[in-house]
Specification:
heterodimer; A: 219 residues; alpha+beta; 60s Ribosomal Protein L30, Chain: A; Alpha-Beta Plaits; 2 domains; six-stranded mixed beta sheet; 37% strand; globular; B: 292 residues; mainly alpha
Amino acid sequence: MNVFDIIGPVMIGPSSSHTAGAVRIGRIAGALLGEAPVKAEIGLHGSFAKTYKGHGTDKALAAGIMGMEPSDGRIRQSLQLAAERGMEISFYETHIDGAHPNTALIALTGTSGKTVLLEGASIGGGNIRIRKVNGMGVDVSGEATTFIILHNDTPGTIAAVTQFLAGQNINIGSFRLNRRQKGGLAVMTLEVDSPVTAQLNRALEQLPNIISSTVLAPQ
Amino acid sequence: MINYLSVNGLVQAATLQDCRISDLVLEQQAQQLEQTPEQVYATMAQSLSVMRQAVIDGTYPDLRSTSGLSGGAAFRMKCAVDDSKNICGHLFGSAMVKALAVSELNAAMGKIVAAPTAGSCGIIPAAVLTMQEEHLFSEDTAVRALFTASAIGMVIAQNASISGAEGGCQAECGSASAMAAAALVEMAGGTPQQVSHACAIALKNVLGLVCDPVAGLVEIPCIKRNAMGTANAFVAAELALAGIESAIPADEVIVAMKRIGDVMPVSLKETADGGLADTPTARKLREEIFGA
């Protein structure tokens, strides 16, 4: 903990969990899509479902998907901005068994037809946890530099990624793997101790059996 | 090097070195964050600027929250102060304007600094900026006061809570009020010991305060509780600066606050199920905003 956890962050109100945290969840969904979204379907669970209108959680999620930060003054107008940019956005109430009360389920479609499905929870004070990516369990806080790597479940893929990072002198702080089924789609999440350039991430993406790699800067 | 385990630890260290608490905090935080003191200071100075802008934006007459439940109170208060119609004098009236302005701006999705939370974001800016304006303190004095306030906030966060969902409003507006009281005493040139007494007095005055927001929104009663928290900070600082001591030390008050928060019913901890949130009027408002 430091002084800026106590006096800070600079944010758009009214609630760190319903606004700032929602922006952060949206940002990660947008980053994973990696291209301009044309469609966003957002399920809201628990307190998010009950109070999103009054808290502006809908605006916050939309703003995040478009890449805004929690302190961006345009969050208030984000739904209009989304319409102007040709992003069709809809919200519905849902129930996810066992999910944190402030959970959003975001389905995005990009200009190329690429889709991303992300489940994230706003756990208080603007902190978040991404729980699922494309239906696979992850546990991402976004507090450290984080790789989210979609790949084919084949022998040697993990070794190739970790060797590549070792070669770049990047230390791994945490590692987690999940897959849909044996030999199917899998997701690796790695938290690392140093910043990562877009160029380095593109090189990592060239490794065999990697479908996509997204780097999240700490937030 | 200092830590943030107790208020007394901070007071002892500052007294021993004959310096302000903020001097020690700035130095320690620079080390912890692996930045220069100038960088850390500049970030805090930037937060103070955001607070000042929030007062201006929040005083706009037509400001309304997303729900429509709040807005315009800061402007009304400002009119009363500008016309010298308020009964408690310019400093107090001006502090009320700021507390309402920043809180109302927060409800209207404006830019604020969580201090320590968004729900209690009006108290510290109102106290520090009013003190600075009315007593013509330098920007440096105001920025440094925020470091002292943060240090108190860190002790509270570690030993109790700064979240309404965990500890009720005492943990949010109460913590902000104690932090603001500490800042005021340091700005006024009080001793570290007086900072500690002000913190204790402010927190004692709001022990047991529940978090019962109408419709679950950070508006009713939160906005006016920010005005109360600011007033309470001035009360506590004024008493401490006059040499009045808190019989119960700050660190014990903080533990008491935690224990009270632990036994507080869940319906009174930000769930909007009890207290003001469960009054006939609140239920009606909730229905108007969110449907049945």
